[in-house]
Design a protein that fits this description.
Elements lengths: L2 H25 L4 H12 L9 H13 L4 E5 L5 H7 L7 E6 L2 H13 L6 E5 L2 H4 L9 E6 L6 H10 L1 E10 L16 H15 L3 E7 L7 E7 L4
Parallel strand pairs: 1-2, 1-4, 2-3, 4-5
Antiparallel strand pairs: 5-7, 6-7
Helix pairs in contact: 2-5, 3-4
The structure holds S-adenosyl-L-homocysteine, 3,4-dihydroxybenzoic acid (DHB) and magnesium ion (MG).
3,4-dihydroxybenzoic acid (DHB) binds next to loops.
Length: about 230
Amino acid sequence: MADETLATLQQQAHTRQTIEQNITQLFAPEDEGLRHALTAAKAAGLPPIQISPIQGKLLQLLATLCNARKILEVGSLAGYSGIWLARALPASGRLLTLEIDAKHAEVVRNSFATAGVADRTEVRVGKALDLLPTLESEAPFDLVFIDADKPPYPQYLEWALRLTRPGSIIVADNTIRGNRLLDPAQVTDPIEKAIAQYNKNVAQNPRLQSLALAMDDDFTDGFTIAVVRHEE
Ligand code: SAH
Ligand code: DHB
Ligand code: MG
């Protein structure tokens, strides 16, 4: 590659990074509570795979937009995304977050308390596919955020559809993952296949209005956002 082209690409990457930093600083700054969640996660040896501040702010905006009173999260990690979501709730609102790992759940509960959202949050420990069928009496949820293990994403979508109402929003993380928007029939890797199937199911579901949005720092991953349509 010509040196000049390489320099231009590096400059563009640098510009994108600076834009992301500036948007974060202006629109999605982290407070003590969010920073504590990250520090606690690191101290406990959890992997740093939480959403970005901009994604957190987008979740918050979406929750506000659908007037969320009840939010369901699948995959809590250290509570970082949960804090962003819980802060969009009124005092009487509720975020229920599902987490398979009891150690993670312990970190989450501490992080929620430090961030001042313990009163409106609940962590349930277990395998999401075992817990989701127990939630029907607590439905409908106004927003569902899917961010746990990837192979069951299509099943998580089925549950999200059962547990929501017209006007609810269903968001999934990591649905682009370096262009995994392929035809699910063409791929065998279980993660690729599941993500491709998730996107296809969302895009083709007449009950949903949806968009995948590349929005991480190098535009290779992001959210698929879907709104449950009102009946005609
Ligand atoms: N939403 C978090 C990141 C979640 S990472 C944030 O952005 O802050 C994925 C989490 O899902 C991990 O904590 C992992 O332990 C959990 N997880 C993995 N498989 C799961 C399953 N089958 N059921 C519930 N949680 C699961
Ligand atoms: C992984 C999981 C995530 O939810 C994510 O946002 C990034 C990475 C992972 O399992 O590696
Ligand atoms: Mg994720």
